[in-house]
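protein under study:
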Amino acid sequence: MNDISLTLSESIETYLITIARLREGSQAVPLSQLAEMLSISPVSVNEMCRKLQDQGFVVYQPYKGVSLTPQGEKHAHYILRRHRLWEVFLVQKLGFDYHEAHEAACQLEHSTPNLVADRLETFLEYPQVNPEGVPIPRANGILPVSPWLALIEMPAGRSCHVIRCDLNRTECDFLDEHGIRPGASLTVLAMTAENLLLQVGWEKISLARSLAESIIVAEEGHE
């Protein structure tokens, strides 16, 4: 893969990934919202969005807002891929908390060649989501869309990866001690009326159904 996204300035990259993060479905992002997120005056944002439209990265509609073109979206996903891979590395390998990792990744995302991102992804064993359970774009710039379900709904014999744990801090810490955290892969071995038997890495874990109901997962092979 070439490093086409690295030919963009940091300023342009920041606009593209901010638009990608702010959008909801196919709705355009209001310029006022974009200006607030970037802490830049609406006049400056208006001017920059017109330049980005001239370069083919966005579609700007006065009074409606701005949306990414396919070209702009692909660039944004390259950057988000690097950002989220660094978040995984910093949290899992260096012990950063998520907010520290996010801040550091904001700097690293602009200076990481795609070759390094590819090696990082391999080293991390191809994580599907960042520590917050947000999907990581693939190397081709496509953001996978996974059908999510509660762990309790997974059939026995199927494998999945954890998207998020909708539990309190104590319960999340307990799960984390057993390797059950966003991005982790696991297999449902069996189910009883009260528990699920899981394979997490080399460990077999019995998990209460009440906890499994609040663990959101995506089945492997259904990205």
Notes: The longest helix spans residues 70-92. The helical segments are 10-22, 31-38, 42-54, 70-92, 98-108, 114-123, 169-177, 209-212.
